[in-house]
């Protein structure tokens, strides 16, 4: 009488997690903190720019054309968005493309950690830097120039979270379509200039002509600028602005997932 041989045990693919994943986050965090240039542009530059503008006397005077508000009041949300632009467009894509270019992501694909861990760590670190940058900007604006805190705090937080998700998705998409670090820098520079304009760095969205304002608010940073401004005034952000940010976040996340290459 013969007995059937037992079926070979199925080998399970290691699942990233535990100490290995924690080690990746710790290592990436250490490398992130060792880049003083990136830290300055994300955490320091937006607030520095706001302070320089705030030192202009006319920017601290109430303007009837702005409903009695001051120009510096408009620039605090803009500086918040500038920190997001720096993190998502100028800082994150070159890091991820350099990892791919040097074969780090390909080599990680043979380990239990998997390359997705590095991607997750970079997104988490740059997302946290965006939030810290925003808190610094809002705090300095309040203490130095008496800029009122957001009157609609839940609306402001929701707008911030949507824009953070959108900015990170944009950075991941740029990382996906750029084959090399040089390409990521070149593409990022073009997108950087466009996003600076649509966020209102050169001209606040609220002061743009109606047609231009309508066009700009169809972009993620233009919609975010309007949403944050409404929350600063105590109004709930318009749903169309929140919807635009949500659509951009979903679309860019899908594009990044579809086009991202590990090698």
UniProtKB/TrEMBL annotation:
The keyword Hydrolase does not apply. It comes from Streptomyces cremeus. InterPro entries: ABC-2_transporter, ABC2_TM, ABC2_TM_bact-type, ABC_2_transport. Belongs to the ABC-2 integral membrane protein family. Residues 37-263 form the ABC transmembrane type-2 domain. Its main location: membrane. It is a multi-pass membrane protein. It is found in: Cell membrane; Membrane. This is Transport permease protein. Keywords: Antibiotic resistance, Cell membrane, Membrane, Transmembrane, Transmembrane helix, Transport. The chain crosses the membrane at residues 39-59, 74-96, 116-136, 156-177, 184-203, 242-260.
């Amino acid at each position: 009488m013969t007995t059937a041989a037992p079926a070979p045990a199925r080998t399970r693919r290691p699942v990233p997690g535990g100490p290995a994943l924690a080690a990746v986050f710790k290592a990436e965090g250490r490398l992130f903190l060792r880049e003083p240039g990136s830290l300055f542009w994300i955490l320091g530059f937006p607030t520095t720019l706001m302070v320089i503008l705030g030192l202009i006397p006319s920017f601290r005077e109430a303007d009837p054309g702005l409903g009695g508000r001051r120009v510096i009041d408009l620039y605090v949300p803009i500086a918040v968005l500038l920190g997001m632009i720096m993190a998502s467009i100028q800082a994150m894509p070159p890091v991820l493309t350099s990892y791919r270019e040097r074969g780090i992501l390909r080599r990680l694909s043979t380990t239990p950690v998997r390359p997705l861990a590095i991607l997750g760590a970079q997104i988490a670190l740059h997302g946290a830097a965006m939030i810290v940058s925003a808190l610094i900007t809002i705090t300095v604006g309040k203490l130095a120039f008496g800029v009122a805190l957001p009157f609609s705090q839940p609306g402001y937080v929701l707008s911030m979270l949507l824009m953070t998700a959108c900015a990170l998705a944009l950075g991941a998409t740029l990382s996906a379509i750029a084959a090399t670090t040089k390409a990521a820098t070149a593409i990022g520079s073009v997108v950087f200039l466009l996003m600076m304009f649509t966020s209102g760095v050169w001209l606040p969205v609220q002061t743009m002509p109606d047609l231009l304002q309508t066009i700009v608010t169809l972009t993620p940073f233009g919609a975010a600028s309007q949403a944050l401004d409404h929350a600063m005034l105590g109004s709930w952000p318009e749903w169309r602005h929140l919807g635009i940010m949500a659509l951009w976040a979903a679309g860019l996340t899908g594009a990044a997932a579809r086009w991202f290459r590990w090698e």
